[in-house]
Amino acid sequence: MAGKLTVYLRLMRPANIVTSVADVLAGIAIAGYFYHLTFTTNSFYPIILLCLSTIGLYGGGIVFNDVFDAELDKVERPERAIPSGLVSLKEATFLGTFLLLWGIGFAFSYSNHAGALAVGIAFFALLYNKVSKHYAFVGPLNMGLCRGLNLLLGISIAVTMLNHFYYLAVVPILYIFSITMISQGEVHGGNKRNLYIGGVLYAIVICAILYFAISYEQSAAIIFLLPFAWMIYRPLLNAIKNPVGLNIGKAVKAGVISLILMDAAWAAAFGGMWAAIFIACLLPVSMRFAKVFAVT
Fold it and tell me: I need a labelling partner for 267 at 20 to 30 A (CA). Which of 26, 151, 196, 211 fits?
């Protein structure tokens, strides 16, 4: 039983799931929910529901990535759980379906707005895995949209804030667009053009968060922005110098895990310093998972 559970976790990529929880917590901070938080069960209940929702949605989306890539992985990544025979295609499909329904169910148990966003995330995750990831421009955009909606899932904890800050979804869309573009050279190596574009998009993301930090007079956000920039640019510059698959894989891995620091910076930029610190504490958790389970 424990062995099968480990295989399922390999499929779900727990290090990545931690980053999706960070997205939702950042959205909750942007919505200002933590300002009014009291240490009662009722106060934490909506947070728990939305975090459980994103765990299911992201985990299910990742599992279906391997389901749809099962034949290709026999050639390119035979060590993965499905082509290696550790789990059957039928079992993986059932797990992915269960997780997506789990995510949608928990979102709807909070509100119809959250539920609608969860349905959107599940739809675009499946669309990416089945169709759009095979296209150089549409695929990264589609994946970014999933992360943008995930941030909005957190903001939906307060519907009025969702109406005010829906446009913030553009920032994670740009960030994930850049990571997904970079990842296209992970198996066979890439060209420097995608890497340079990714670096420019990273800079735009940092400037966007910095703009809100300055606007809300929350200079402490720089505490999270500086290590965020260091974590994403250091491996990216190495990949630019030598764009082989191994270096690109490290740049992608760093980009994914660094989402936690980006989310911490979001929370700090909107005045949620304690929330930012808590989100940042998820970084070692994700990094620990990344040492045991694959990120890409």
Answer: 196
